[in-house]
Amino acid sequence: MTSDAFLRNRDNFCYRHPDRQSFVLCQRCGRTVCPECQTQAAVGVICPECMKEQRAAQTPVQRKAERRWATRSVTAVDSRPLATYAIIAVTALVYVVTLIPGFGTSVQDTLLFWAPTLYPELLGRFEPWRILTAALVHGSFWHLGLNMLALWMIGRSLEPLLGRGRFIALYLLSAVGGSVAVALLSFTTPVVGASGAIFGLFGALVVIGRHIGANITGIAIVLAINLAIGFVPGLGVSWQAHVGGLVVGLIVGFIYVRTRAARQRALQIGLLAAVGVGLIALLFIPAFVY
Fold first, then answer.
1. Catalytic one of 138, 143, 211, 242
2. How far, rounded to the nearest angstrom, does the alpha carbon of residue 190 sit from its chain's CA centroid?
């Protein structure tokens, strides 16, 4: 279901297929195009009409070079959520490895997030990879299964909407955000799981859905329920990671909706880099507190 505002805003739909929602713009004309109508360009994608004009403007030398060096000048965009599948596959593989007797425990201990390992003055070692690798390890089959189910449900809709690069950036920054929040709010607690990253996907989906006028009531309710579960005593859930990932997801989602145009690509990359730098900067706070 969608809201009236969503239905009235034609910019949210492919200009060649008015019934297909998309978040991707042609880099030349700025119109919204669905995956079927997208052709990959050097930067971004081009719609069929702009591609036709581009080919018509080619000189004989350019056409000859294209025929000689490439069977096709462009490649159709693959709208399958391959990044989502890859993340699920890698995470599942790591879980299987952690089950190997005599070896799995050490792998999990090496990959989980424990804030003191970021400060050499405390333990005499520096292990920054844990900020990200904590999203690869899980405490049980059900922990893994529920997280990967949520990732699959969100990723198959959000990844085609954003594109693989933006989706991966969102996932990684949200995972870092979850770890940073744990370092700030529960310094001595070791944590595992991709929940922070998944809450980031939830947050971005809420912002983007709100921006395009979609009905986000259902998403908001599911998000609120899952967030509340983290505060139930005795469940062993890291609400800090959930909150950290969610906040970063909301910020990244806002960046995406405000920098949709192809001409804003450099600005978008710069803002994402600033978010990453800001998260790392926050890790200096525990150094003074603890």
1. 242
2. 24
Sequence-distant (6+) residues with CB within 8 A of 210 are: 216
Tell me the torsion sign for CA atoms 147, 230, 276, 257.
Answer: positive
Report yes or no: 112 and 189 within 8 Å, Cβ to Cβ: no
Token output for 58: 């080619």
Q: What digits encode the pLDDT tens for the residues 163-196? A: 899 999 999 999 999 999 999 999 999 999 999 9
Q: Residue 252, exposed/middle/buried by CB under 10 A (0-12, 13-18, 19+)?
A: buried
Whether the pTM exceeds 0.85: the reply is no
Q: Are 212 and 166 in contact (CB under 8 A)?
A: no
Segment holding 265, helix H or strand E: helix 265-282
Is 138 an active-site residue?
A: no
Q: What is the pLDDT of residue 91?
A: 97
Determine which one of 174, 195, 211, 238 is catalytic.
195
pLDDT digits 0-9 by tens, 98-116: 999 988 889 999 999 999 9
- Cβ contact 33:50 at 8 Å: no
| pLDDT score, position 50 | 85
Task: Give dist(CA 138, CA 236) in Å, integer.
Answer: 13
Q: Where are the domains of the chain?
A: 4-69, 82-289
Backbone angles phi, psi at 32, to 5 degrees: -75, 135
What gap in Å lies between CA 128 and CA 248, rounded to an integer?
19
Q: Tell me whether residue 242 is one of the annotated catalytic residues.
A: yes
Query: Can you tell me the distance from the alpha carbon of 29 to that of 46, in angstroms, rounded to the nearest whole number?
Result: 8
The CATH fold assigned to 82-289 is Rhomboid-like fold (1.20.1540)
Distance CA 54, CA 62 (A): 11
